């Protein structure tokens, strides 16, 4: 009996020691990861850290048909950063008029909108912000632009969009009688505490706007006004941009909508072991709250074995379908929080028939 108790005691001690060791190991790894990040940060040149800090400073600006070069000079003086405009570059107009009003945004958002309105891009290289057309930049420099746009979109999803949605779901009463469209949008901008950028010269849309609604959410009032004027919108870089649908459509990859888009980017974690495809999609639907519609001209429901953590919903759906080697077409409906998938089995490759083997020709032996 004493021997058994002694053995149990030793086992418990070993378990406790193992648990403490595992916990200390995890803490050690966490501290090591933090230390590595800090070391990586300290290894960056001081000028890069300075640029990062100043790009995130909160600023407010109002420009009305100001030449691009003067807007950039204002930025240079205020932020104390080197800004180089490729003034002689093809398609670069230093005198391009910039009309822009932004309140309480990060400087990088103001810079992005300024270059975007001028049809330009920017990169940070060699202690300067270099501004030119995308086509004129070195291929290696261009890679920075999509990375920056992706980071900006993630920031919108996590920080900017949730409070904006809260403000736009509140009921409002709006009365606009015979005002220019820019004035009407400015009124909605104040109600929603949001920056609105319009992609036209106010002088080109002088027709007065009359619009009146009561006890309607600000979101629906905003949409109705745009619909009546034949316009569309996107949320990009801490502002709502309004313009013709054809122009807005060019930026859909970097922009968001007021409704639904965040749901499609929700992260999901899952473990499927020989789970039928349709059941796997139902599980993802429950996790995310996004409807996933599977359509197929034939019964397609193969089992899937896959494990993933913190994966965006859209990426998860695509990876599962690709892993099953299926042909598929995928569309999204952000307004309805839905993903529509048309799937079918891949047609088997038709192997070319083998070439007929050449018959061996036997030469007749000559008579001696």
Descriptive account of the structure:
The protein starts with a helix and ends in a 23-residue tail after the last strand. With about 375 residues, it is α/β, with parallel strands linked by helices. Strands 2-5-4 form a 3-stranded mixed sheet, with helices on one face. The protein has 12 helices and 15 strands. Residues about 360-368 have low confidence and may be disordered.
- Give the count of structural domains: 3
Fraction of helical residues: 40-55%
| Main sheet: strand order | 2-5-4
> β content, as a range?
25-35%
Total count of strands: 15
List the defining traits of the structure above.
globular, Phage tail protein beta-alpha-beta fold, 15 strands, 12 helices, three-stranded mixed beta sheet, alpha/beta, 3 domains, 368 residues, disordered C terminus
How would the blueprint of this fold be written?
Layout: H1 2-43, H2 46-55, E1 58-67, H3 68-79, E2 83-85, E3 97-106, H4 107-117, E4 121-125, E5 128-132, H5 139-142, H6 144-168, E6 171-179, H7 181-192, E7 196-198, E8 209-217, H8 218-228, E9 232-236, E10 239-243, H9 245-248, H10 261-264, E11 267-276, H11 277-288, E12 291-295, E13 303-312, H12 313-323, E14 326-333, E15 338-345
Parallel strand pairs: 2-5, 7-10, 12-15
Antiparallel strand pairs: 1-3, 4-5, 6-8, 9-10, 11-13, 14-15
């Amino acid at each position: 009996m004493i021997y058994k108790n002694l053995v149990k005691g030793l086992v418990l001690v070993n378990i406790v020691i193992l648990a403490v060791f595992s916990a200390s190991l995890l803490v050690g790894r966490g501290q090591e990861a933090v230390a590595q990040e800090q070391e990586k940060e300290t290894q960056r040149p001081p000028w890069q850290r300075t640029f990062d800090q100043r790009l995130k400073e909160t600023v407010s600006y109002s420009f009305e048909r100001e030449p691009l070069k003067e807007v950039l000079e204002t930025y240079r003086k205020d932020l104390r950063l080197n800004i180089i405009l490729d003034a002689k570059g093809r398609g670069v107009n230093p005198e391009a008029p910039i009309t822009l009003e932004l309140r309480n945004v990060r400087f990088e958002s103001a810079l992005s909108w300024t270059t975007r309105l001028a049809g330009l891009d920017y990169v940070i290289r060699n202690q300067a912000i270099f501004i030119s057309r995308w086509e004129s930049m070195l291929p290696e420099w261009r890679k920075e632009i999509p990375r920056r746009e992706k980071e900006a979109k993630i920031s919108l999803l996590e920080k900017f969009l949730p409070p904006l949605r809260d403000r736009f779901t509140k009921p409002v009463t709006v009365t606009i009688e015979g005002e220019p469209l820019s004035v009407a949008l400015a009124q909605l901008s104040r109600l929603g505490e949001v920056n609105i950028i319009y992609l036209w010269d106010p002088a080109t849309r002088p027709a007065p706007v009359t619009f009146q609604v009561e006890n309607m959410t600000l979101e629906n009032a905003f949409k109705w006004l745009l619909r009546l004027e034949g316009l569309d919108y996107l949320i990009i870089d801490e502002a709502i941009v309004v313009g013709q649908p054809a122009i807005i459509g060019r930026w859909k990859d970097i922009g968001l909508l007021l409704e639904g888009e965040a749901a499609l980017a929700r992260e999901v974690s899952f473990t499927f072991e020989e789970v039928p495809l349709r059941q796997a999609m139902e599980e993802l639907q429950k996790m995310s709250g996004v409807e996933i519609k599977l359509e197929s001209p034939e019964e397609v429901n193969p089992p899937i074995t896959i494990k993933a953590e913190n994966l965006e919903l859209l990426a998860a759906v695509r990876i599962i379908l690709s892993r099953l080697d299926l042909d598929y077409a995928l569309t999204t409906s952000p307004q309805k929080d839905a993903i529509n998938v048309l799937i079918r089995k891949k047609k088997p490759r038709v192997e070319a028939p083998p070439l007929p083997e050449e018959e061996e020709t036997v030469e007749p032996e000559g008579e001696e």
